[in-house]
Amino acid sequence: MPELFEPKRPAPDCPLCPRLSAFRDVNRRKFPDFHNAPVDAFGSLDAALLVVGLAPGLKGANRTGRPFTGDYAGDLLYPSLVTFGFAAGRFDARPDDGLRLLNCRITNAVKCVPPENKPIGAEMRACQPFLADEFKAMGGLKAVLALGKIAHDATLRTLGLKLSAHKFAHGAVHETGGTVRLYDSYHCSRYNVNTRRLTEAMFHDVLGSVRSDLA
Predict the structure, then answer these.
(1) N or C: which end of the chain has fewer CB within 10 A?
(2) What is the pTM (predicted TM-score) of this model?
(3) Domains of the chain and CATH, by start
(4) Whole-angstrom Cα distance, residue 184 to residue 187?
(5) Is the pLDDT of residue 2 over 80?
(6) 72-83 vs 200-214: helix axis angle to the nearest 10?
């Protein structure tokens, strides 16, 4: 039986990104009850679907320690995953709400919360090896759902593909030359939903495509 590959995870006091490390220290003083550390992925490495987001939200995953939990984006993401059979249970925006992912795993391109939710290029590059390790460890990976252009670009770089050959567009599906397909969606952020750039129907269209292809 082949040896299982365990992806590397950043340390709680990961020093790779000085700006993010300093911001983490500020938030530990300001919000001592928050997670305030790199946020691990949620879901099994055996999953066929990997959802890639941008980074933890300050009062979302940075508070709760679970991706997309406690901020507005999770209110669309998790119920939608339940609707399409990628999760089971009731999402209650708490890491102990009992929600289970089914054949799905969720991670972020950047593991630590960035100021103003905007990571810089050096921070994305510093975190890329962690994302690459997750890809390597997911032997049954068949679909990646990128939430926003930063997640899209991080996925392409991890797969060794040219950004210019795979333009980000909501609803786009990209063949990667292997067994993995890349699906694009606008990020399910409060801003995108409130401005109607992304509607529930639009997001469901993308998840519907993923569900159909994985059936």
Answers:
(1) N
(2) 0.95
(3) 18-214 (3.40.470.10)
(4) 9
(5) no
(6) 40
